[in-house]
Amino acid sequence: MHVNPRRILTLLLAVMAVTASPALAQTPTYVTMPSPFMTPPRAPAAGLPAPVDRVGLTFGHDTSELGQLFASGPGYIPLDTAKRAGVRWVRLDADRRSFTVGGGGWTYEGYGQVVKRLVDSGIHVHIGITDYTLDGNFMSEGFLRNLEAFAAEIARQTNHPGRVVYEVWNEPNYLGLFWRASNDTAAEARAYAQMLIRVTTAIHQAVPSAVVISAGLTTDSATYADSFLPEYRRLLNLRADSLGQVQRFGFHAYPYSHDTLALFRRKLNQPQAGFSAYPIDITEVGDFWNPREVGAHNNAAILLRSIEADLPHINFWSALSQQYEGRLAGFMDPKAGEADGCRYSTYGFISGVAGYVCHPSMYMLQVFNRVAAGRTYQGAYFDARTQSMPGSLPGDDLSGVRALKFESTDDVVVAVWTMDTARGPVAGSGRTYSLAFPTAPLFVVSDTGTSFPTADSSGRWQLRASTGPLYFFFSKTGKLPEHKVHVRALCPNGGVPSRGQVEVSTLVWPDPSNSTWQYTGAFSANINGWVKRQLPSFFSSMYVTMKAADGSGRVLQPRGSALIVGPGAPSVSMGNYFDPPTPMFVLNSPSTTSSEIQLDFHAPAEWCG
């Protein structure tokens, strides 16, 4: 999405109700939550990727340093940071003007190589196909043929089955911005249906297995959809083949005064449209009019909502703050001289990010990644398709409490949120919900990982849209999961040294005991030369160093690591950190169950005689 003053004004008018001042003090709405260990009545739909594999981020012309991304791909710090925070998809622009002489110098082959590099690094790619040449030839036969040929060649050059999807256009209902100016919305909606048929057919002719998504319509597009969807169905029915049929329908679920995601689902389900079997894909969502913290809460809520609704993919906008008005949507930004710019969240900490600073939405992703990775999504405790949400009010489809269940062998995490923002036209909106569980959680984490909320004097937790979702951790074993770290020094042949003493230091962030653990002693005092430490599951990072305890101050070099048990163990890296730079292991963000990790250092040669 490119932004100009008109777009800002339009969106401000659309969301004015959502960003109204918080509601006046109200009596909390009391909600008794079900047992966290029950089977949720709304099971996940079959055939969908795990929730952690559905999250994307836009890297666009004005929302990333695109030249750096295209030049380096993996190795570009914002991309690598996003991957560490759980991003699995990248949205890239493919506008035909950039491939024309004098339009940007891109080539099909070069673009295909960029996509291949991303795919090879484990990233899936979401390509937006456009041609914003909105002149007198727009939608002429020549224009459409050029767009068809362009889309087909992009598909051929980026054909990686199951790893790349194609979105045909962006927000065509914004007439005069992403589409030609017109006073006839219905006619332009029908024109987009014609474009969609032709371009989708061209993509499927080039790559029959391609997943194609219709252009994401904005949250205020209900009237446009009433013209577009029936016309698209009519054109499909005229064809003898299904090449023009998209696999998903795009939607931009920005905050609004009512539940526009549910409304768009109803539009698709109408008989005159006949698309009830087709999923919605949130191809863009974000927040650039509220403070960053509020935007992160809104992003966390729509992420959880997309999982509840069984959507296959959600793409956030954007990697970096836009270079024009607002500058609030970015997940991170460059910051000269910053040595560790993603450290401002206790639970969402991402270590070693230099030259950039993370914003709350990046921490929101990291917290969700830690919750969902390694746990199985079990479904929603309340089924919005068949019941009202607990605490909801008639006529307000964003009110009430929603909850999802994520489970491991050790614990259950309940994600609880509300979409009930303060909205001017909706009386009483922006409510506080007072939650009680039949079982006390071990701990609770905020959506950006900056706090660990506690219950009030009556044993209840306060939930508000303005402060974001909460994650409640419940033990199945009666105790916190633990991560055992085994540390030893080894000789070149892999044997344990016959002599020598070491100092092993670990610095944990956050450390519940607020202390640095240290061991000094001989290997003979330990079984097989191992030093052990047990850590609670909610630590974010641990730094481990080993020195010779002979007064020399020699630092032993990291040798390698191995996972002993535990699929949700922390990631392990080696590097030089602190001042002066010191070789060490860094353990980051265990996601779930108990684990054991072995860290090996190089023993001095004289210890191995």
From TrEMBL:
Signal peptide annotation: 1-25
Gene Ontology molecular-function annotations: hydrolase activity, hydrolyzing O-glycosyl compounds
Keywords of this entry: Glycosidase, Hydrolase, Signal
Keyword flag Transport: no
InterPro entries to which the protein is assigned, alphabetical: GH, Glyco_hydro_5_CS, Glycosyl_Hydrolase_39
Single Gene Ontology BP annotation: carbohydrate metabolic process
UniProt-listed PROSITE patterns: GLYCOSYL_HYDROL_F5
Protein name: Glycoside hydrolase family 5 domain-containing protein
Top-rank taxon: Bacteria
PANTHER family: ALPHA-L-IDURONIDASE, BETA-XYLOSIDASE-LIKE PROTEIN-RELATED
